[in-house]
Each structure stands twice: as C-alpha cells, then as structure tokens.
C-alpha cells in the first residue's frame, strides 16, 4: 500500500516538473505553435528564447535542445586560458527551429544552428545539426535523410494500428496491440 502511494506521488511530481519546465521555457521566450504536443520530458537548455517549434508537432520523451556549445573552451585552454577564467564567459550559440508537423523521436538531441523544415519525422536517438529540408524522414548520428515522407507513408499505411477508443483500459489496449501484431 505504501509503495503504491509513493509510486503515485513520484508520478505526480514528475508530471508537475515536466509542466513547470515547459512553462518556464515559454516564459523565457521559447516559441511554440498551436496544437503542438509534448510527451514526457524535454530539456530546453539555458537559452530557451533561441528555440522555436512550429504547429502540430509531437515531441516525445528525453529530447534535448542545445542552443550553445561550450566546447570552444578546450582550444581556449590549450592556447593558455584557464577554465575558471573562461567558464560561462565564452560559448558558441545558435538557434534551434522546428517547422510545422514535425515528429521528434525519443532521445533526440538538437545542436545549435539547426533548422528543421515542415513535415519531418526524426527517428529516435538522432543527433540533429544544420538545415533539414521539409518532407523527409531523418535519423542517425549525425542525422541523415532516410526517405521521403511519401515513401514512409506508402511503406507503413497498410500496417497501421487503429485505436478507435482512446479510453481503453491497459488490458484492452494490450489485447488490441497483440491481435494487431498477430495479423
């Protein structure tokens, strides 16, 4: 009974933390379009005002938006500077921009100076940097084009799991998923 209570309390605290993190990023200037959905936890970094996310995007769990690169400190130190003097004083910064209708898979990392077009699927675990055109699927480290959005649709349209009732119990959903996989 006590374990169940603490488990519920933990889930509630995580949910509150996620909501507060998103709220803080928006208050600090992050732009988010209409009907965009955040699932799980995202890290918006220390300059969320350099992040813009379009409309109808779906951002899944453990996504990191990096708008600065402190790695420049390594060559500065090798040239004679010391870390306490340069830490937090020297950095490379850049925007991260997502177009409309972008799906971002779990554990994706965005690096500074990244612009993603519209109608893009980003595979889980990708590291995204630079200009990404519209209407493609990307993935990998570094992220590269896998296929067009049209090819992705054609490949998967006949294998969709369709859930007409979004209020299914866990057992009912489990049964539906397993039946779908056995087809």
Automatic annotation (TrEMBL):
Keyword field: Acyltransferase, Transferase
Keyword Acyltransferase found: yes
Molecular-function GO terms, alphabetical: acyltransferase activity
CDD domains assigned: LbH_MAT_like
Superkingdom to which the source organism belongs: Bacteria
Pfam hit, one: Hexapep
Family: Belongs to the transferase hexapeptide repeat family.
Descriptive protein name: Acyltransferase
Source organism: Litorilituus lipolyticus
